[in-house]
Give the backbone structure.
Amino acid sequence: MQTSLALNQTDRFLITGGTGLVGKALTSLLSEKGFQNVIAVGSRDCDLRDGSAVTQLFSATAPNYVFHLAARVHGIGGNAKYKSDVLYENVLINTNVVEQARRSGVKKIVAMGSGCVYPELKGQTELFEDQIWIGPPHPSEDSYAHSKRLMLAHLQAAKQQYGLGSVFAISGNLYGPHDNFNIDEGHVTPSLVAKFFEAKKNGQPVRVWGSGVAIRDFSYCDDTADALFHLLLKLEGPVNLGSGFRHPIADIVAALQDACGGGVPIEWDNTKPDGQLERYYNLDKLKATGFAPKITLAEGIKRTYDWYSKNWELARR
């Protein structure tokens, strides 16, 4: 649904997950646009699983608008290993935030979904927002997907009963500085960045999960923040969020080879899963807002690798 939102410089913004890669980028973007009342919170500031803590957070900050980016999230390995925890904790986090946004009179909430909410539609490579509910999510990340689907249902119910404005942003593969660079359980891009850094430092080969043929839409954090701001201003409901830059995993590996100066041997581990071989999204709704990505995959990978090389001792892992 198209909307037209007029913001004031005095508006108060709350960003959950504000210390992560998109939260940091979004905080910087809002500051650049002249908004001074931006509260970015991380897990150390508020345990969003705790309903009382979330109530106190909203009471203290009284936001007009909320960007809900926080989640307990891993890559394919971690989401498969911690299925029950991932489902339980994300349901608590999302339910507490959406309900307090509604009770506190928030004008609009932009909540981060995930592409894993989509079913696996065999033979179809481009996914549309109205296809979310037509089948179960892929088993590789179904617990995380179900928690996000429930949040979408909650947002829709709060809209119908209370008039809470909302966007459910269905994101592709996000990456950039301030990500979680856990090698074993992180998302594909940050885990590969950390693997290449360690391999370069120790003179060892890099082992990469799968075959490298799986295709994804990769969005750099600064572009993602810009897209979320466009969604706040102009749309409602579920919206696909991405860059439109579609690449096989092998392209990330090649970009990292360039970023670290080459010379790192690659070992493909075909015993590990690729996940869905193709998953990307129709971006017509997002493009209609005027959004256009600025950072190519090669440039984004270089920025991320350079940042991690300078900050690896303090980076989340």
